[in-house]
Design goal:
heterodimer; A: alpha/beta; ten-stranded mixed sheet; nine-stranded mixed sheet; 7 helices; 19 strands; about 20% helix; globular; B: alpha/beta; six-stranded parallel β-barrel; 24 strands
Chain lengths: ~425, ~475
C-alpha cells in the first residue's frame, strides 16, 4: 500500500453517512488491493509513482474561485456546477449558480445531492461500476459530494444535463454521480471535467438505463498540466435500451478513464466513440470494457487518438461475451496516429468469448499519415503543413462529426483543431 | 450436433501407446545434486554445469507466471523425475543396428522410421526419447555440406565454442520461470549450425517422445544459421496416454545472422488428456529467434495436443530489413487449454512481420491468442500485419484474443484485426447440397479456415497437419 492510499484509508474511516454500509464493503476490497505496479495488468503502461507519496489537503468550498464556468454555446444546457469536486449550484445559460432547492428543473427530472438522497437511491450505488477499479473504490469510500439524477419513466428531458467540474486548486477531491434513466425515458447527460492544477481527483458516474430508455452521453476529460485525474463512466443497459456515448480525452500528468458497458437486458444497443488528443508530455489512459451478459445485444466502439511528442497514450478495449450471450454483435476499432519519435502508444483490444453464435471483431492500427495522401493534397496546391493538419485532424474529426448534438460538436471541433495545430507547431 | 461433438471429443489418440523399455530414471525431486548428476551423465564441461547452477539458483527465486488465461492445479516440481533414458542407450550405440529394436519399433509405430533407406529422402531426423537423443540420421551427408546436426549434449562436447557463444544469447537463462528451469535441467535436444552461404541440402527434423511415467521432458534446441545460409527445420512430438499430467518445458533458440533464413515448423501432438481433462502434457515452451541484417525467421505451428499449451514463438528483428513471420493453427477440444501467440519486437529499420493465427475451439476447451507487436524508436518504416481468427464449434468452448501493440516510432505501421465466428449453418447447408456429408463439409470448412497456415508448412508436414485436423474433428458434426 502506498502512503497516498494509506491516507485514503485513514480518511475513509472517518466518513459516516447513509452510504456507510456500502462504503464499508468497498473499504474491505480496497484493503485487499495491492498498489499497482507495472506488473499489474490494468496499470501496465501507466505509472502511479507521482501519486504514491503525494499528500494533498481535501478540497473545501474555500478554494473555489468566483470566475464563471464556461458555457457550451448554443447548447442551453442545465449545468450542475462543481468546483474541485465540491457542489456549487445549478446554473442555466451562464447565469449565476443557484442552490439545488431553488432550481427550476424540467418535468420528469429530479436531482438530489448525494448525501441527501438517503437510501432511496441506494440501489443505484455501485451497481454499474465493477469493483475491480482501484480508484473507483477510492471514490466509493471518500466521495461525499455528488448528485443523484433521476429521469422519470416515460419522460423526455430535452434540455441537456451537464455535470461540470473545474479543478482550480492544488487539492484532492472525490465526487460521484448516479443517473437513473427510467423506463422509456430519454435524456442527454454531459460529464465535463477540466483544469490543470496540481490536484488529485476521482470522478465516477454510474448510469442505470431501464428498459426502452435512451441516453445520449458525453464524457469530456479535458484536463491538463499537473492534474492527476482518475475517472469512470459505467453503464447498465436494460432491455432495448439505447446508449450513444462520446468520450473526449486530453492527457495530463496522469489521466485515466475507465468505461464499462454492461448489457444486462436483451436487445440493448450501445455505440461509443472515443477521441483522445495528447499534447506533448501528456499521459492519457483509456480502458473500456464491454460485458455482454445476455443474448442479442449490439455494441459498436470506435476509438481514435493522436499522440504528440513525448506523450503516452494507452488504450485497452475489452469485449467479454458471456456463456449465454448468443447472437451478440460486437465490434471495436482503435486507430492511432503517432506524431513524433518521442511519443508512445500502447493499445490492446481484447476479445474474450464464451458463446459460439456471435459475431465479434476488433481491429487496431498505429500509423502515420500516408505520404501518398499528402502528395495528393500538395498537387492540389495545399501547402504540406496545412495538408498534414487536414489529414491528421480529419482522422478524429470523423468521430467528432458523429456526435448527435451539433451544438456540442461545433463547440468542440475548433478547440480540438486549435490544440492540434499548437501540437504540430511545437 | 452435441452428440457428434461428444464423439469427436472421444476420438482416439493414436500416439498414446507406451513402449516397454527399461529405463534409467532419476528418483523424483530437484536440487543442485540432481543438476550435478545430469551434467555428469552428459559428461559436460565445468562451465556448462556452472551455467546450469546459476540458472537453478535464479529459478528458485522466480515466481511461476499466472498471467496466462489458463487454469491448472499447481505443479509440484519435486514430484517429477528430471532424467530418464532407455537402459540400452547407456553404452552409446555406434550405429542403428546396435539400437534397441523396441526403440526403433516405437518410432516406426509413430510413422518415423529411422532407417535411412526407408525415410523420405531429404529429411534428416534427430530422435529424442525422454532425456536422450536416440539417433540422428543422414549425418555424414550433412557433414559433407559442412552442416552440423547433432544432439546438443554432443555439441557441448564437440563444438564448445559455438555452443558457448550462442546458448542463452537469445533466451537468457533468467528469461522466465520455465526457461530458467529448462536451463537448469535440460537433458537433450538438437543443435544445428549452417555455415556461411550454405543452403542446407535437406530438411532437418527432431522428433520428441516422452515415454517414462512421472518424468518431465526438458529439451533445448539451438539453431545457428550463419551469414547467407538457409535451413528448414521440423519438430514433432507425442507422448503416451496416461492419467497423470507430465511437464514439458522446452527452450528453442534461433540465431539468423546477416542474410540468413530459418524456417521452423512444429506439429505439436502431445497427449491432450481425456474428455474429462484427466492426464495430458503441460506444455510450457519458450521459443525465440534473433534476426540480424536482412535475415528472416519464420515460425509455423500446428498445435493440436497438450492439456495446457503456453507458447509464444517470437522474433527479435534486430537487423535492418529483417523479417519475422508467425503462422499458427491451434485446435483445442475436450478440456484442453491453449494460450499461445507470438512476439514481434521491431528494432531495426524497415523490419517486417506477419502474424496469421487461426484458433479453433471445440468441446469444453479454451483457446487464447496472446501476442505482442512492439515498434522500437529505431524501427523506421517498420511494418506489421496481424490477423487472428477464431472459430468456435459448440457452445461450451471459449476463444480469446489478447494482442498487445506498442509503438514508439511514428513511421512504423501496425495493423491488427481479429474476428470470431462459428461454422455457419449456411456454409454447411451449401456443402451438403453439393452432396458432401456433414463431416466432410466441416472438415473442408475448417481446412479452408486454416489454409493460409498450412500452405507455409513443408509438404510432408502439411499432409500430416491436414490429417491430424481431420482426425481431431472426426465425427464433430455427423
Amino acid at each position: 500500500m502506498s502512503e497516498w492510499l494509506a491516507s485514503v484509508v485513514d480518511r475513509a474511516e472517518r466518513v459516516d453517512d447513509w452510504l456507510s454500509p456500502a462504503r464499508q464493503q468497498a473499504l474491505q476490497r480496497l484493503l485487499e488491493q495491492r498498489w499497482p505496479t507495472r506488473r499489474t495488468e490494468a496499470w501496465r503502461y501507466t505509472s502511479l509513482h507521482t501519486l504514491e507519496k503525494l499528500q494533498l489537503p481535501l478540497a473545501s468550498a474555500a478554494e473555489n474561485s468566483t470566475s464563471e464556468i464556461p458555457v457550451i454555446d448554443g447548447l442551453q444546457s442545465l449545468d450542475f456546477v462543481f468546483e474541485n469536486g465540491q457542489f456549487v449550484g445549478v446554473a442555466e445559460a451562464g447565469h449565476k449558480p443557484q442552490p439545488l432547492e431553488q432550481a427550476r428543473l424540467p418535468n420528469g427530472l429530479s436531482v438530489h445531492a448525494l448525501l441527501d438522497s438517503a437510501n432511496t437511491e441506494l440501489s443505484a450505488f455501485n451497481k454499474a461500476k465493477p469493483s475491480h477499479h482501484l480508484f473507483g473504490l477510492v471514490n466509493d469510500v471518500l466521495a461525499q459530494q455528488g448528485l443523484v439524477i433521476h429521469i422519470k419513466a416515460g419522460a423526455t428531458v430535452a434540455q441537456p444535463i451537464r455535470v461540470v467540474n473545474r479543478l482550480s486548486a492544488d487539492v484532492e477531491s472525490h465526487h460521484r454521480v448516479l443517473v437513473v434513466v427510467g423506463e422509456g425515458a430519454k435524456a442527454t447527460v454531459i460529464e465535463h471535467g477540466f483544469g490543470s492544477c496540481a490536484s488529485v481527483s476521482t470522478a465516477f458516474a454510474e448510469f442505470t438505463l431501464a428498459a426502452n430508455s435512451q441516453l445520449e452521453h458525453y464524457r469530456f476529460a479535458l484536463h491538463g498540466g499537473e492534474a492527476q485525474f482518475f475517472g469512470g463512466s459505467h453503464f447498465n443497459l436494460g432491455e432495448h435500451a439505447r446508449l450513444n456515448s462520446t468520450v473526449v480525452g486530453y492527457g495530463s500528468q496522469i489521466s485515466r478513464l475507465d468505461i464499462d458497458l454492461n448489457h444486462v437486458g436483451e436487445h440493448a444497443y450501445a455505440k461509443m466513440n472515443a477521441v483522445y488528443l495528447l499534447a506533448p508530455k501528456e499521459h492519457f489512459d483509456l480502458h473500456t470494457s464491454i460485458e455482454h451478459m445476455v443474448p442479442n445485444g449490439t455494441t459498436e466502439e470506435n476509438a481514435r487518438g493522436i499522440v504528440g511528442d513525448k506523450a503516452r497514450a494507452v488504450f485497452n478495449g475489452r469485449i467479454h461475451i458471456h456463456r449465454d450471450a448468443q447472437k451478440t454483435l460486437a465490434e471495436l476499432n482503435n486507430r492511432n496516429l503517432l506524431l513524433s519519435r518521442g511519443g508512445h502508444i500502447a493499445t490492446k483490444p481484447e476479445l474474450e468469448i464464451y458463446a459460439d453464435d456471435v459475431q465479434c471483431a476488433h481491429g487496431a492500427t498505429v500509423a502515420e499519415i500516408a505520404e501518398k495522401e499528402l502528395y495528393y493534397l500538395q498537387t492540389r496546391g495545399i501547402p504540406r503543413s496545412q495538408a498534414l493538419v487536414m489529414l491528421n485532424f480529419g482522422f478524429i474529426q470523423e468521430l467528432v462529426n458523429q456526435m448527435p448534438n451539433k451544438a456540442i460538436s461545433e463547440w468542440l471541433a475548433p478547440q480540438l483543431r486549435e490544440r492540434f495545430t499548437a501540437m504540430e507547431q511545437k | 450436433m452435441s452428440d457428434q461433438l461428444d464423439q469427436a471429443i472421444a476420438r482416439k489418440y493414436d500416439a498414446g501407446f507406451v513402449s516397454d523399455i527399461e529405463s534409467d530414471t532419476f528418483p523424483i525431486g530437484l536440487d543442485e545434486s540432481v543438476i550435478e548428476r545430469i551434467s555428469a551423465m552428459k559428461n559436460e564441461p565445468e562451465w556448462m554445469l556452472e551455467w546450469r547452477l546459476q540458472a537453478f539458483r535464479s529459478w528458485l527465486k522466480m515466481k511461476e507466471p499466472d498471467w496466462a488465461h489458463l487454469g491448472y492445479d499447481p505443479i509440484d516440481y519435486q514430484s517429477i523425475s528430471y532424467y530418464s533414458a532407455p537402459k540400452s542407450m547407456k553404452d552409446k550405440p555406434k550405429s542403428l543396428d546396435e539400437v534397441d529394436p523396441e526403440l526403433l519399433r516405437t518410432y516406426e509405430k509413430l510413422g518415423i522410421p529411422l532407417h535411412e533407406q526407408e525415410m523420405l529422402a531429404g529429411v534428416a531426423v534427430d530422435a529424442v526419447f525422454d532425456s536422450v537423443s536416440v539417433v540422428t540420421t543422414f549425418r555424414e551427408k550433412l557433414e559433407e555440406a559442412g552442416v552440423i546436426f547433432c544432439p546438443i549434449s554432443e555439441a557441448i562436447q564437440k563444438y564448445p565454442e559455438l555452443v558457448k557463444k550462442y546458448i542463452g544469447s537469445v533466451v537468457p537463462k533468467t528469461d522466465n520461470f520455465f526457461a530458467a528451469l529448462n536451463c537448469a535441467v535440460f537433458t537433450d535436444g538438437s543443435f544445428v549450425y549452417i555455415p556461411k552461404g550454405v543452403r542446407c541440402p535437406m530438411e532437418l527434423s527432431t522428433y520428441f517422445r516422452i515415454n517414462e511415467l512421472n518424468t518431465g521432458q526438458f529439451e533445448r534446441t539451438l539453431i545457428v544459421a550463419d551469414e547467407g545460409s538457409y535451413v528448414s527445420y521440423l519438430e514433432g512430438c507425442t507422448a503416451p496416454q496416461r492419467d497423470e499430467n507430465q511437464l514439458h518445458a522446452a527452450v528453442v533458440e534461433l540465431v539468423a545472422l546477416d542474410d540468413a533464413e530459418i524456417k521452423y515448423s512444429t506439429v505439436q501432438n502431445w497427449y491432450p488428456g481425456d474428455e474429462n481433462g484427466k492426464g495430458g502434457i503441460y506444455n510450457f515452451v519458450t521459443k525465440r529467434g534473433v534476426c540480424e541484417k536482412n535475415a528472416k525467421i519464420s515460425w509455423t505451428q500446428v498445435e493440436t495436443g497438450s492439456a495446457i499449451t503456453w507458447k509464444y514463438p517470437s522474433c527479435i528483428l534486430r537487423g535492418d530489413n529483417s523479417v519475422g513471420e508467425f503462422y499458427s493453427v491451434a485446435l483445442t477440444r475436450g478440456r484442453q487449454q491453449a494460450d499461445t501467440g507470438t512476439k514481434m519486437i521491431h528494432l531495426g529499420k524497415n523490419t517486417k512481420s506477419t502474424i496469421i493465427s487461426k484458433g479453433i475451439s471445440a468441446g469444453n476447451s479454451s483457446n487464447a491468442y496472446r501476442g505482442l507487436v512492439k515498434m522500437g524508436p529505431g524501427a523506421d518504416g517498420a511494418r506489421n500485419f496481424t490477423e487472428c481468427d477464431s472459430l468456435l464449434i459448440g457452445d461450451k468452448c471459449a476463444a480469446h484474443t489478447f494482442p498487445y501493440i506498442e509503438s514508439s516510432n511514428p513511421s512504423a505501421i501496425v495493423e491488427h484485426e481479429a474476428t470470431t465466428s462459428k461454422v455457419s449453418d449456411d456454409q454447411l447447408f451449401l456443402c451438403q447440397q453439393r452432396g458432401l456429408d456433414e463431416e466432410k463439409a466441416i472438415s473442408m470448412i475448417v481446412n479452408g479456415f486454416c489454409k493460409e497456415v498450412f500452405k507455409e508448412l513443408p509438404m510432408e508436414f502439411a499432409v500430416e497437419a491436414g490429417k491430424l485436423l481431420e482426425i481431431s474433428l472426426e465425427g464433430s458434426v455427423g
